[in-house]
Amino acid sequence: MGRITLDKVQKAFGEVEVIPPLDLTIEDGEFVVFVGPSGCGKSTLLRLIAGLEDVTGGQIRIDGNDATSVPPAKRGLAMVFQSYALYPHMSVRKNIAFPLRMAKMEQAEQDRRVQAAADVLNLSDYIDRRPGQLSGGQRQRVAIGRAIVREPSAFLFDEPLSNLDAALRHGMRLEISELHKRLDTTMIYVTHDQVEAMTMADKIVVLQAGVIEQVGSPLELYKTPRNLFVAGFIGSPKMNFFDGAEAAKHDAHTIGIRPEHLTVSTTEGMWKGTVGVAEHLGSDTFMHIHPEANPSETITVRVGGEFSATHGDTVFLTPASDNIHRFDADGMRMG
Amino acid sequence: MATQHSRSAARIMMAPAVFLLLVWMLVPLSMTLWFSVRSYLPLRGGDQGFVGLENFTRFVTSSAFWPAILTTLIIVGGVLLISIVFGILLAMLLDQPMWGQGVVRILVIAPFFVMPTVSALVWKNMFMDPVNGLFAHLWRFFGADPIVWLSDASVFSIIMIVSWQWLPFATLILLTAIQSLDSEQLEAAEMDGANPLARFAFITLPHLSRAITIVILIQTIFLLAVFAEIFVTTGGAFGTRTLTYLIYQRVLESQNVGLGSAGGVYAIILANIVALFLMRIVGKNLDR
What we know:
In chain A, 27% of the residues lie in helices and 32% in strands. By secondary structure, chain A is an alpha+beta fold.
């Protein structure tokens, strides 16, 4: 079981309020991702749930029980840290067994659980090595192993992949998702990388300056962003925004169109522009286009497959009319 | 620019320093070795020629030799124990955020900058004097008879004085080591259910092991040579005669340079054995 409820949870460091009162419910078995730019309070929120920081106000409930002043070890949660925080002087086996040893579990049961975790995470080959002798990805696995042996009611991940290189990050992303499917345990995952959020989450919580901007499934956030911040943060490349006359045509203060919802033609279209930088990836082509009406601006366009255009070419853009996001003067979504 | 030219230029520029260091070390060493095989009694006939290893056997068979070795080991061991145990405690205390941290840290380090002779005299006259010392007043305040520290608890007194001087050094080294401990490791241990004592035993102490070996190594080498503290307090009486002090007595009080030099050679060997032994431990720790 792992249903976590935050009720008006608030955190201030001295005078500085990092998280204004905030409500959130995380259902049992859900994979929830906290995402936001750095300094938005997402790690602080995770540490509040873990119990590594004390809340200034409000209540944290785990499976209905008030856990606000319960010490971290008693909350039944396990955490994977950004730096992995492995104990450098212990072997992999001892690292994984540490929480069991602290719980004074029988040696036979400890061995059984460590072996099971090692099998799940393919750690058996280097179980007697020290963390210093392992690669980044292996250390990451040991950190996860140390978390799963405790059989916690929820896992907390604090930017666990940010120290890995791109290829490894992709692999570990899959492994963590796989692990979630297999264990079916609540997972809370903090990241600043919206790709990780989109690919792994059941539910994304977008945070900015300690405030929840929107909560929803990845596709909900993609299709109906509640405000300009979420619209700009979710989706890669970033959504294009237009103010003024173009927006007025749609009866809005600002309109937003995703790069994949613009069609490009060399002959005709709504907006004329010149190609700035064109990135040819083979599978996709990303073009940064300077519109004729306002050449200092840049519109990003994504075209599936190869599109032969180079710097300085003239192209025409047409937005898909049913994929235009409209926002009012306060930046909130309209209609 | 590690060209042939720049390398030879570097060698030429280093040469004076290397030369000076070598002379500094080799001249006293070879003189000690030279005198140790001669009978040299400055007030009783001067240099009386080569005597082989006689000085060496006489030094070891003297009734003062083994007690001196034992005293040396007790003082070195005692000071190491006190400075490491209290050094760790002080370092953890100073690592806590508090008001006036900078000033407090400097004050804690201060005893290290006091000359050994001065600190020994301060301890002898201000604290340990059986009539006017602060300890004597304290004892009398509780109605007890003051302890005559330097004669009744002489070795312990020396250990206290020397520890007071070396504790700051240990604290300083251990404090920097504690500060380099990744706080996420402690948090991870906390999440793993380790109580403060277990966190200390399983995380902090292993993290400090390297710093502790370095403290032991450096302090041992210096503590084997403790002299001023004994000279100005007990003068080697009441069982406080260490190997260093014995050598001093042989040379200056008995005026037997040959015998003292033989003792010096023993001291060199002893220090090197200790250093080699400790270097191995440090090396092993550094490998990890």
